[in-house]
Amino acid sequence: MATYQADDGWDALGDPTRRAIVACLAERPRAVGELAEVLPISRPAVSQHLKVLKDAGLVTDRAAGTRRVYRLNPAGVAALRDQLDTYWNRALTGFQDAAETPTEEES
Amino acid sequence: MATYQADDGWDALGDPTRRAIVACLAERPRAVGELAEVLPISRPAVSQHLKVLKDAGLVTDRAAGTRRVYRLNPAGVAALRDQLDTYWNRALTGFQDAAETPTEEES
DNA sequence: GCCTTCGGTAAGTACTAGCTTACCGTTCGT
DNA sequence: ACGAACGGTAAGCTAGTACTTACCGAAGGC
Question: In whole numbers, what is the pLDDT of chain A averaged over residues?
Answer without folding.
Answer: 85
